[in-house]
Amino acid sequence: MNTNAKIDALQLMLTDLRTRNESIRHKAAFKGCQPEFQSLVTTLIDQLETQLNEEKQIHRGKLNFNG
């Protein structure tokens, strides 16, 4: 996968996760699992941010190596 495509995909996923999706949140709350759901979202955001930063560093390294 192209590094730029990975960075774009990670940024889009983070944007989507940070956007309030009321229908998903409503289902989670209805089932009584809102705190657990939010915890999973927070964990996933942290993981994606870490991966995004790693991909950016790899991409910068390639640019510096080729430049």
Mind explaining what this structure looks like?
With about 70 residues, this protein is mainly alpha-helical. It has one domain (about 1-65). It contains 3 helices and no strands. It has helices spanning about 5-20, 20-30, 35-65. The two termini are about 20 Å apart.
Could you outline the blueprint of secondary structure elements for this entry?
Elements: H1 3-18, H2 22-30, H3 34-66
Helix pairs in contact: 1-3
State Rg: 16 Å
List the domain count as a whole number: 1
Coarse structural class: mainly alpha
* Portion in helices: over 70%
Q: Can you write the helix and strand succession as a string?
A: HHH
Distance between the termini: 21 Å
The overall pLDDT, averaged over residues, is 78
Strand content: under 5%
SS elements, strand count: 0
What's the total helix number? 3
The global form is elongated
Low-confidence stretches: none
Biggest sheet, in brief? none
List keywords for this structure.
3 helices, mainly alpha, elongated, single chain, 67 residues
Summarize the structure.
With 67 residues, this protein is an all-alpha fold. Helix content is 87%, strand content 0%. The protein has one domain (2-65).
